[in-house]
Every structure is written in structure tokens, then in C-alpha cells.
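Hi there, hope your week has been kind to you so far. Thanks so much in advance, here it is:
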Amino acid sequence: MQVSVTDKCSGHGRCYTVASDVYQDDEIGFNAAIGQTFSVGEDLAEQARLGAINCPEAAILISE
């Protein structure tokens, strides 16, 4: 699974609140992976999806 965090992120923090094993915050509360794409193993896939679903800006894109 590939996870992409777009620049739509406005720092609500819901992704790393519900899925802290996949998403982390930066020093000002935004997703630390803005502008990046990274791989997530099957063991964390459900968390990755949960974080994406909870993003109010739909800033997290999942491709399986």
C-alpha cells in the first residue's frame, strides 16, 4: 500500500491521533509527511486507512 500526504493538510491532527503508528506530526502540528509518498505494510494498512478517512481535507491518498 502506498500513502501520499498532499499539501491540503491544514493541521487538524486527526490522522496521527487515530493512527499514530503510521502518521506523525511536525513541530507545528501538521502531518510530518506532507509532499511525500511512503509504503505501509499490511500490518498497518487498516491504521493508514483510518487516518485517511478521518482527514477533513482528504489530504491523505491511499493506493493499494
